[in-house]
Every structure is written in C-alpha cells, then in structure tokens.
Write a structure and sequence with these properties.
The protein is globular. 36% of the residues lie in helices and 24% in strands. With 324 residues, the protein is an alpha/beta fold. The strands form two sheets. Strands 1, 2, 3, 4, 5, 6, 7 and 16 form an eight-stranded mixed beta sheet that branches. It has an eight-stranded parallel beta sheet with strand order 10-9-8-11-12-15-13-14.
Length: 324
C-alpha cells in the first residue's frame, strides 16, 4: 500500500481559489440535502488555550471519506499558521488510505472559499466596501476570495498591532490592486458592506451597533463554543445562517451566548448556507437586512478540496509517495 503525502507548498499550487469556491459550494449544497455524513467536531483542550480537534466524514455513498486532525496552537514563530495537522483521505472503493494532506493551508483556503460562497448569496449586489477584522492567514486568503464574488473598491483593515496592520494593508494593496486602508479602531472597519471577523479573540471585537443597514458579516475566527468575536446585539439584529445546523447549535459561541442572554431563541438560526444556495431557504429579504454567516467549518469542505488536491497531485506528479 502507498500513501501520497502532499505538503503545504504543493497545496498552494494545486488548490486555486476559483476551484475551492466551487468545491465548497457544491459540498455545502450536498450537506444540506442530507447526502453527506459527518460528526460534530470533537475538541481536546490543551494548555494555554490550545486545542486538538478531529473531524471525520464522508462526501456520500460511493464517494471519498476521511478525517481531519488539526491542532490550534499559538506559534512562537511570527507568521506561522496557528492551525497545524493533516487530512487523511480514503479510497471510496477499496477503503484504503490513499493520501495525507497538510491541513493548515487547506483549512485556510477552504474557509476563505466558504466565506466567498456565503457572501455571494447573502451580501447586497451593490457591496463595494469590505472590512477585515484581523490580519493573519485567514485575512490573507479572504481578501482574494471575496474579490471573486464582489467588485470591492475599498478594503478597511483593523488589527491589534498597528504596525503589522499597516504593513498588511500595503502588501494586500500591492498584490490585489485594490485600495486597502489600515484603520485605527475595529469600529472603523465595521462600517463596510461586508465585514469579516478573522481573529482569535475570546471576547467580542465587533459590536452590532457599529454595523450599517444592509451589511453582511462572515464570522470566521471562533470555531468552538468558547471564543466569541461579536456581541449579542450583532446576532440579534441579523438574519443568521450557518454552515451546518448541528454543529452550530452545539459550538457557535456567539449564537449560544445570545441565547443565554435571552435576546434570541433557537428559531433565530434560519438555516444552512447550502439551503440558501439551493433556494430552499430564503437568505437576504431586503437591502436593509443585516445578514450573518457563521463559519465553524465542516469536514465535507476539507474532503472536497482535499480530494481535488489528491487527484491533481497524482496527475501532475506532485507530492511524495511513501510505502505504508
């Protein structure tokens, strides 16, 4: 038996954002139709606020299945991804493991692709200003992904480190040829048509009172029931959608916090983005609606993108085959 090992450098070459958006979009539609199978992410808490998560799942009968195991771990090396792990893929015919793919970059790309897909269905067509709260790896991938679905003319960027934020804004402007501005407060980035929270914040960095009528918000940074990027007002004043209802009701921290505060009920969660994409659940009802997409991340996104990487790696002679 042989395994194909694909590192993060090959992942970046093999998985373009255009393909990732299509793959994630299809996977989320299939999830909402009940065609896929997955378990809610299990998280083992480690010291210092770090954690180890596992996510098993299948794309459906006769389709690839596998497991992602990933550690969220603060790095002592600036610029290094905080998510490190692997996706293990199995052949749907033989049941044999066929590939191990670096999961940090795969996660960053598929998460940005999911936000782009959600923005396509929930943001106003006239959206031209993008707000990014956070300057890490997710922000770096979200900007080009979102530029694929809306012609943003201006990007407002806030991060805790002013010097890093300024450098990030300059680099993004040079790379993507769109006006990028480092702003002094998170509230300054919130006055945008589309806002993305891309932080490791334990307490809210975005408040509902800052949002403009008609805004769309992608909540991305928190992937468990504890870290919380937005306040209860933000949740309460929105039309609230998720990637997968079962995991969101268990682990969407902002939603759970708003329920505990008594400002929303269970019914405030309107449905999954796959159902919105398919037209079976209404998304935005008017240009004045504030919409939220809560991205916890589901394994079917990783499997769809990972299998694409595996097949392209085989076709292009990339990766390393090892005896197993």
């Amino acid at each position: 038996m042989k395994l194909l090992v694909v590192n993060r450098y090959d992942v970046e070459v093999l998985l373009d954002l255009t393909s990732a958006v299509t793959l994630v979009d299809d996977a989320m539609r299939a999830l909402s139709r009940g065609e896929t199978s997955q378990l809610v992410r299990r998280i083992l808490s480690l010291s210092g606020g770090s954690g180890l998560a596992d996510m098993p799942g299948s794309l459906g009968a006769g389709k690839p299945f596998g497991l992602k195991c990933i550690a969220a771990f603060s790095s002592p090396n600036p610029g290094q991804s905080s998510h490190r792990g692997a996706v293990l893929l199995f052949d749907p015919v033989t049941g044999e493991p066929v590939a191990v793919i670096e999961a940090g970059l795969l996660t960053a790309i598929r998460t940005a692709a999911a936000s782009a897909s959600a923005t396509r269905y929930l943001a106003r067509s006239s959206a031209r200003v993008l707000g990014l709260i956070g300057t890490g790896e997710q922000a770096r991938w979200h900007l080009p992904a979102l530029l694929m679905v809306r012609p943003f003319e201006r990007v407002l960027i806030w991060g805790r480190d002013e010097e890093k934020t300024t450098a990030f804004a300059r680099a993004m402007q040079e790379t993507h040829r769109v006006a990028c501005h480092a702003v002094p407060e998170a509230a300054d980035a919130a006055v945008a048509d589309v806002v993305c929270t891309l932080t490791s914040a334990m307490q809210p960095v975005l408040r509902g009172e800052w949002l403009c009528a008609g805004a769309h918000v992608n909540l991305v940074g928190s992937s468990s029931a504890i870290p919380c990027e937005v306040d209860e007002t933000c949740v309460a004043k929105s039309r609230y959608f998720v990637d997968w209802e079962e995991s969101a009701r268990a682990q969407a921290s902002e939603f759970r916090r708003a329920i505990r505060a008594g400002v929303v009920s269970d019914s405030h969660l309107l449905g999954e983005i796959g159902a919105v994409a398919a037209g079976t659940v209404p998304g935005r009802l008017s240009d004045s609606d504030i919409t939220i997409y809560k991205s916890l991340g589901v394994i079917v996104q990783d499997l769809a993108c990972g299998w694409c990487v595996y097949e392209r790696a085989r076709g292009q002679g990339r990766g390393q085959w090892v005896e197993f």
